[in-house]
């Protein structure tokens, strides 16, 4: 890990004026350039020559960082209109002129993003994905189609931690092996019958399993529910680019709320599920019981990365519903209302079908 990565963070922010017309530039999804939304001017991103790398976890203790909950908001000075904007996001837009605002987070009080997965799906693309999602919703109200026409689309980068580790786990448990005996019984008609009955013999088991983990992903924010974030997976993390602020121009980017130490505990929980399955596989037999697992972690690495999401919100029957779109793959997840009329109609139709089948069967018996 280079000293430059962790240097003290200045309070400056980045600005992106268009060299052609002076308006604001934004990162253009699916490209490696900034684009002016007014005149269309393209400005290629500079090649930094950097590679995405993980950092040794034990180096966290040497950082002069503060708990992120104690940090104040960023104060942005817009280079276009001069207005001041306060935000706890590391990237935002000026509330007065809409210019891109990106904080300089090159180090210091918080962990610096190492990687970013750039936006690929643009606004027109996300609307098409939303239209397909709406058409696939059973029992959705007809007015739900308006969600694909909403202007309330916000492109946001969400912070995530990734963890790598080599693990060695000692376990104890039991291996169950099935055997069968023949049993005699009397059926409901008074006849004597036989049947095979399964039994299980249990034997003590112990052993050691090893597993290497790469890029175990943990959300670094509480702003969105994990049950929805999990459904946005899988992310093509191998396509991530070394972090540079230009990718954030024109979008919001949340700073992490989950500290890396807390994220590691979540990651270990994910690893534990895989290790438990490895132990069962190593025990063998027909059934397995795992009593204890003692895991040791080696070469523990981590990084902070930003993943792209389109956020949409719409109101139906006075209630706000939220939808998220993976801005790299187009996967859509979110909340949706149900049409009571459509459900009632479907139930009524099902009842009619059942009645017809009963009548047909009854008529057949009376012939």
Based on CA atoms alone, the radius of gyration comes out at: 28 Å
Report the uncertain regions.
1-11, 337-344
Termini Cα gap = 86 Å
Question: Please, what is the average pLDDT?
Answer: 82
User: For this entry, what is the oligomeric state of its chains?
Assistant: single chain
In percent, how helical is the residue content?
10-25%
Count of β-strands: 17
Characterize the overall form.
elongated
Structure description:
With 367 residues, the chain is of the alpha+beta class. The protein folds into three domains: 3-166 and 209-273 and 300-336, no CATH class; 167-208 and 274-299, no CATH class; 341-367. The protein is built from four helices and 17 strands. The chain has helices spanning 123-135, 226-229, 260-283, 340-365, and strands at residues 13-14, 26-27, 33-35, 42-44, 55-56, 74-77, 84-87, 89-93, 100-103, 115-116, 153-186, 192-219, 241-242, 252-254, 287-316, 319-326, 332-334. Strands 1, 5, 8, 9, 10, 11, 12, 13, 14, 15, 16 and 17 form a twelve-stranded mixed sheet that branches. A three-stranded antiparallel sheet has the order 2-3-4, with no helix packed on it. Strand 6 and strand 7 (84-87) form a beta hairpin. It starts with 12 loop residues before the first strand and ends with a helix. The model is unreliable at 1-11 and 337-344 (pLDDT under 50).
